[in-house]
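Supplementary notes for students who missed Thursday's class. We covered one full example, reproduced here. Read the sequence, then the structure, then the short commentary at the end.
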Amino acid sequence: MGRKTYKNRWKKNLLTFFSIFLILLSACGNGPPEAEVQSGSAGKIEELEVHFIDVGQGDATLVKCGGQSMLIDAGENDKGTLVQNYIRKQGVKKLDYLIVTHPDSDHCGGADVIITKYDVDTVIMPNYSKDTASYRDVVQALDYKHYQVTEPKVGDIYRLGDAKFTIIAPNKDDYGNEANNYSVGILLEHGGKKFVFTGDAEEEAERDIINNGIDLSADVLKAGHHGSRTASMGDFVSAVCPEYAVISCGEDNEYGHPHAATLNTFRSMGIKVFRTDEQGSLIACSDGSEITWNAPPSDTWKAGEPGLSGSNATVKQGSKGVTYILNTKTKKFHKPSCDSLPTENRDDSAQSREEVIAQGYTPCGRCNP
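Structure (token representation):
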């Protein structure tokens, strides 16, 4: 009887030992990357700040939470110092993440300054390059700092203080020469509040984001491609179903951003719109259950296209006397209202279509002039 009791007690102690061992083992591990972000003391989480920086016709967004910081894009070539000064004034001394959504100069142009001036833990960029001075400057800065680039993988999750973000784009390795569609997209979560960023992703890329199986519902949508009609498609905006949209664009920019079609989509869905061209830098603060802003939403619904408003989608053809915009390098010609007008190697022409073609130019495949 005594031997049986001793044997049972030995089994019980052995089970207890293994239980403690397993608990200690799990505590020592880092956990899977998709693990939920833990709350702070007393169940509260640290405040999240999202700064949509006014860089004119370009993108730059600073995200801060719990002493950690992330910068998404850095504006044009001449905006690097502006972005540097802005984030310095916000008390940022290093960056945990720098996301360069794609190699267009209005997104990557100022990144070389940021990379050179700041220590960055993780640099995320798509596997797509451009043979431009702006992009080469970024690559040279990365080489100078001996930084390795992390390629975005859809579904990967990263922590930022008490927030986390999930990579939602790009979903394909090959979008041809459509640089915008390679844009890195993220879903940023903070408590019960969510933000969606898609760079300049256009219709095809937005469709792929919808189909990748990730729940896109969010409170704030950073409007793709500066409010262009080639982004923020109705199905995509419906999938996100935001309360707010933020448009980053320059006042009186040459592309006519934001376009009336995009504003009409937002207005028809009852989405409140913020705009850097009208309101300057915008700041959204989240406590996990509520988002507050440093300014009220815009109420103008004014399109960037000359003479248009959010209730009128008729596009004017551009400046008087200009019939086509020529790209002297690619030998393509565009309507003045095209979304893909060249910023370099550009020549404005008042000639007829036949005269332009006779000079060796071919029509743009998008606007098909």
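Commentary. The radius of gyration is 25 Å. The domain at 43-293 is CATH 3.60.15.10 (Metallo-beta-lactamase; Chain A). If anything here is unclear, bring it to office hours.
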